[in-house]
Design a protein that fits this description.
CATH topology: Elongation Factor Tu (Ef-tu), domain 3
Number of domains: 1
Largest sheet: 6 strands, antiparallel, barrel
Distance between the termini: 47 Å
Family: Belongs to the tRNA methyltransferase O family.
Domain TsaA-like: 9-142
Keywords: Methyltransferase, S-adenosyl-L-methionine, Transferase
GO molecular function: methyltransferase activity
Shape: globular
Strand content: 25-35%
Structural class: mainly beta
Protein name: tRNA-Thr(GGU) m(6)t(6)A37 methyltransferase TsaA
Number of helices: 1
CATH class: Mainly Beta
CATH superfamily: YaeB-like
Helix content: under 10%
Length: 157
């Protein structure tokens, strides 16, 4: 019997270069490339992508041990000055399904290589999807976030 709720994903690409380990800040200085799987894709898969300035990249935090996944509240970055926040009220890597989503600058497209800056994923990261960032998919209307989140992100990019 097939589980109709099962989700199976196959990476479309891999991050090459950039950082070899994740640490929290200064991602905007990091350049890397996303290399599409040549067994499944041709450069045509990226046709027109170079007309966009930014991408949204979905990836897996492959270095997180599944046993380290968090499902409840914790102090972000272990900082007791910040309030407890549930795993779905933060963007930490130790999350269910170990999925990350990042917006980054598109630098160039060259064959099956997508050169980016500011992608907060490390060398070897499996990329599950690449999407062009379109302003219309951004928030409609004003946005809000707590002060701790603004403080946490102050030096992230």
């Amino acid at each position: 019997m097939t589980d109709v709720n099962a989700v199976t994903l196959e990476p479309v690409a891999t991050v090459v270069g950039g950082r070899t380990e994740a640490y929290d800040d200064d991602w905007d200085s990091v350049e890397a490339l996303i290399r599409l799987d040549a067994a499944r894709f041709t450069p045509d898969s990226l046709a027109g992508l170079d007309a966009f300035s930014h991408l949204e990249v979905v990836f897996q935090f492959h270095l997180v041990d599944p046993a380290a996944v968090e499902t409840s509240a914790r102090h972000p970055r272990g900082n007791p000055d910040w309030p407890l926040a549930g795993i779905f009220a933060q963007r930490g890597k130790n999350r269910p399904n170990r999925l990350g989503v990042s917006r980054c600058r598109l630098v160039a497209v060259d064959g099956l290589d997508v050169h980016v800056r500011g992608l907060d994923a490390v060398d070897g990261t499996p990329v599950l999807d690449i999407k062009p960032y379109m302003a219309e998919f951004g928030p409609q209307g004003p946005t809000a976030q707590p002060a701790w989140a603004t403080e946490l992100m102050r030096h992230y990019y």
